[in-house]
Amino acid sequence: MSKSKLRVLAQDDQAVCCSPMVREPLGEGDAIDLARMFKALSDPVRLRLLSLIASHEDGEACVCDLTGPFDVSQPTISHHLKVLREAGLVGSERRATWVYYWVLPTALARLSSLLQTSDAPTGVGAR
Amino acid sequence: MSKSKLRVLAQDDQAVCCSPMVREPLGEGDAIDLARMFKALSDPVRLRLLSLIASHEDGEACVCDLTGPFDVSQPTISHHLKVLREAGLVGSERRATWVYYWVLPTALARLSSLLQTSDAPTGVGAR
Q: Which residue of A has its CA nearest to B39?
């Protein structure tokens, strides 16, 4: 229920922001907000965590699925997951022993739209 | 001539990487490379600079067009432009007095594809 609400809010945000940045200059407020999200993506372990969660069966992953592939400690993984959550890129919920994570698709779609060029999806074209 | 070559190389890169991260887990090497590009986008002034360049008439902007909108010094703008260039997001060329910048569309398209969800382009859908 609360997750659906979150998704609706994210969709509203997306309606306000962002058209592709190649179309019009980005406003100061949007830039601050978006830079925070890109900062969360600026670490290789966080990017791989996000991708592991996003591509996981059922679209969600238990924190117990997320430590194996990395050569970093459990507290470090937890810290990275917190950064992703605080940036609005993933949602999480504790169920019994484990915390489960899922990607918030509207957040990814918002960033994806922002970076679309007029030549998307192939990216081929004149500058 | 050299710019066309750059674009062809970037397209080849894109063919290797990246399918949407929701489809399959991102590899370690790609994650390092992509995190570096996202880091360049993790600053509000850099995001606005990139957007100003991308949305500028003719798709390129003189450095003389890029200082006015910002409340930071010329050396700071130059530093940010250097970060964008080193991350492979913009190209540049000196012509007489001024340096001109343009966005490398394949780089933006690569990041945009990576972040696409199965629900793109609307971003509406279940997790």
A: A42
Residue B125 is assigned to a structural domain of this protein: no
- Answer whether B48 touches A (CB < 8 Å): yes
| Closest alpha carbon to B33 in B52, B54, B17 | B17
Asked, for residue A11, whether it belongs to a domain, the answer is no
Looking at the domain assignment, is residue B7 inside a domain? no
pLDDT, tens digit (0-9, with 9 covering 90-100), for B25-61 = 898 999 999 999 999 999 999 999 999 999 998 889 9
CA–chain centroid gap for B62, Å, is: 17
Q: What is the pTM of this model?
A: 0.80
Residue A99: its pLDDT value, please?
Answer: 94
Asked if B47 and A55 come within 8 Å (Cβ–Cβ), the reply is: no
Looking at the partner chain, which of B10, B24, B42 has a beta carbon nearest the beta carbon of A42?
B42
**CA-to-CA distance for B38 and A79, rounded, in angstroms?**
19
Does A95 map to a domain? yes
User: What pLDDT does residue A20 have?
Assistant: 83
